[in-house]
Amino acid sequence: MNQTTLKNSIETSGIGLHTGVAVNLRLKPAPENTGYIFVRTDLDDFEIPASVEYISHCSYATTLLRRGVVLSTCEHLLSALRGAGVDNCFIELDNIEIPIMDGSSEVFLDLIEHAGTTRQNAPRRFLKILEKITVEQGDRKMSVEPSDTYEIECLIDFPHPFINRQIFNFTLSNGSFGREIASARTFGFAQEIEMLRKANLTLGGSLENAIVLTPDGMLNENPLRFQDEFVRHKILDIVGDFALLGMPILGKIKAEKSGHSVHASLMSKLLKNEKAWEITESTANHSF
Predict the structure, then answer these.
(1) Is 83 exposed, middle or buried (CB count within 10 Å of its CB: 0-12, 13-18, 19+)?
(2) Where does residue 275 rank: exposed (0-12), middle (13-18), buried (19+ CB within 10 A)?
(3) Are 99 and 91 in contact (CB under 8 A)?
(4) Which terminus of the chain has fewer CB atoms gathered within 10 Å of its CB, N or C?
(5) pTM higher than 0.90, yes or no?
(6) Per-residue pLDDT for the chain (288 aa), expressed as one digit of tens each?
(7) 129, 183, 275 from 72: Cα distances, Å
């Protein structure tokens, strides 16, 4: 199977979840072996490759930093690109943060489908996992181990009647991302919002782009998109963060109460252990 890029450019606009600023976004075709590259058009087209080496911090979102230039909240868009099987893309934006849209990857996936994709000449590369790697941060655990497919097993546990303990097993193949993961929205707790806003976070958050939970319910009038929408969104975040590896993995990720910082720690530990992985050009029909 060969690499893919977009057939046509496509654009949209929105606001940043944490900054609240307006931003214009354009997705453009890119040559083979480019990967994903963010282009800050407001800063003379400064480029920030979507790569683990540029992760700056990841408290409530994943932020990239290169030579003092910041790119924030990239995970939902990267998740859509990886989930749609797009290997190469230029991502132009004119502000600091990717727009949040509806809090999921669905709008981005619709844009990609509207633009179309095209096959390129170079074979698709995979990061094949050879040895199990594990990280733990308190009660947060995450590992990646060998597998012939891209699998994610995720567990979350929140003391809330809508969540409690949720487990979901996901395999990325044959459009499964669009069916099972893309529309799952980000979520937060009403009692945390004031604290976050005092820290200049979630300034663009609203009931239009997040599920806001109260102690015994939620503020949103529209129903959940899945009964287990919360764990599905955690998988969406994992797919997006792991897109920073630069290629799809052949491995199984197990996540328990994980978050962006745990994802970053696992990717960093994995890449440092060069015996734990190899880059392969698979001839099998991995439909990512």
Answers:
(1) buried
(2) exposed
(3) no
(4) N
(5) yes
(6) 999 999 999 999 999 988 889 999 999 999 999 999 999 999 999 999 999 999 998 777 899 999 999 999 999 999 999 999 999 999 999 999 999 999 999 999 999 999 999 999 999 999 999 999 999 999 999 999 999 999 999 999 999 999 999 999 999 998 999 999 999 999 988 888 777 777 766 778 888 899 999 999 999 999 999 999 999 999 999 999 999 999 999 999 999 999 999 999 999 999 999 999 999 996 555 555
(7) 28, 21, 32
Question: Which amino acid appears at position 77 of this protein?
Answer: L
CA distance 267 to 245: 7
Domain with CATH 3.30.1700.10 in the chain: 126-281
**Lookup: tokens for 15:** 């606001």
- Other Cβ atoms less than 10 A from the Cβ of 20: the count is 17
Tell me how far the alpha carbon of residue 135 is from its chain's centroid: 19
Domain spanning 2-124, CATH class: alpha beta
Closest CA to 238 of 106, 97, 83: 83
* Of residues 120, 121, 144, the one with CA closest to residue 250: 144
User: So which residues are the catalytic ones?
Assistant: 260
Rounded Cα distance, 95 and 18, in Å: 12
Q: Tokens in use for 251?
A: 């491995």
Give the distance, in angstroms, between the CA of residue 88 and the centroid of all CA atoms in the same chain: 15
Q: Which fold, 126-281?
A: lpxc deacetylase, domain 1 (3.30.1700)
Q: What's the CA gap between 260 and 67, in Å, rounded?
A: 22
List, in order, residues 6 or more apart from 42 with CB less than 8 Å away.
94, 95
Tokens of 210: 């997040």
